[in-house]
From TrEMBL:
<comment type="subunit">
    <text>Part of the 30S ribosomal subunit. Forms a tight complex with proteins S10 and S14.</text>
</comment>
<keyword id="KW-0699">rRNA-binding</keyword>
<dbReference type="InterPro" id="IPR001351">
    <property type="entry name" value="Ribosomal_uS3_C"/>
</dbReference>
<dbReference type="InterPro" id="IPR036419">
    <property type="entry name" value="Ribosomal_S3_C_sf"/>
</dbReference>
<keyword id="KW-0687">Ribonucleoprotein</keyword>
<comment type="function">
    <text>Binds the lower part of the 30S subunit head. Binds mRNA in the 70S ribosome, positioning it for translation.</text>
</comment>
<feature type="domain" description="KH type-2">
    <location>
        <begin position="39"/>
        <end position="111"/>
    </location>
</feature>
<keyword id="KW-0694">RNA-binding</keyword>
<comment type="similarity">
    <text>Belongs to the universal ribosomal protein uS3 family.</text>
</comment>
<dbReference type="InterPro" id="IPR005704">
    <property type="entry name" value="Ribosomal_uS3_bac-typ"/>
</dbReference>
<dbReference type="GO" id="GO:0022627">
    <property type="term" value="C:cytosolic small ribosomal subunit"/>
</dbReference>
<dbReference type="InterPro" id="IPR015946">
    <property type="entry name" value="KH_dom-like_a/b"/>
</dbReference>
<dbReference type="GO" id="GO:0006412">
    <property type="term" value="P:translation"/>
</dbReference>
<keyword id="KW-0689">Ribosomal protein</keyword>
<protein>
    <recommendedName>
        <fullName>Small ribosomal subunit protein uS3</fullName>
    </recommendedName>
</protein>
<dbReference type="InterPro" id="IPR004044">
    <property type="entry name" value="KH_dom_type_2"/>
</dbReference>
<dbReference type="Pfam" id="PF07650">
    <property type="entry name" value="KH_2"/>
</dbReference>
Amino acid sequence: MGQKSSPIILRLSLLRNWSSNWYAEDKKVPLLINEDYRIRNFINNYYPLGTIARVEIPRLKKENEENIEIFLHTPKIGVVVGSDNKEKNKLVQEVYKLIKKNINIHVIEVKNPEKVASLIAQNIAAQLQQRAFFRAVKKMYIQKALKAGVKGIKISLKGRLSGAEIARTETTIKGILPLGTFRSKIDYAYVAAKTIHGVLGVKVWVCDGNYSPKDDREISKTISRENISNSKPENQVNK
């Protein structure tokens, strides 16, 4: 019998990279996992929905244990960086208070937010929290994604939709979505929308065609050493 699984987990190490990329001694693994979770959770809650697409934390060097590099993928550079790096430096200070380690933040622009499942899910959740009609919201973001060039998209909403007494699930699929084809570029995200009628679950699947050998080479270069070497000292907090 077939079982459901995350499209992202299926493609890890094959066509995608981990959000946390590091090796550690056995006794340090739980500490680093907890630290990464706290950093990622804090940053995602620090900004409004639809701001942060992905948070990457590589610890590929020994010095990264005390000097943490954080890569933020966002379509809103101005919101994250601010004028003269004020907003970014403020975030560095807040994360430092949380974990008491030196932080260096790099901001990477997301050029096509209409193709990123996490951003679509966050934007839908934000609209639902503002009491927008769920069918109109689904239709709008599906049209935006298809116009941006995706091959297929699936949006599933679950809960007390429009304040209904009985919770239900409504799913819309447009285009192709070959979840069983490993070389397919399938992006997936889940976001909980907290409304006055309760929590609504928002799930989004996006298919952006198939991977090519060129894409495979780019995946291995997700974290650029050049970006790390060119980091500015002002982004770092000293103890």
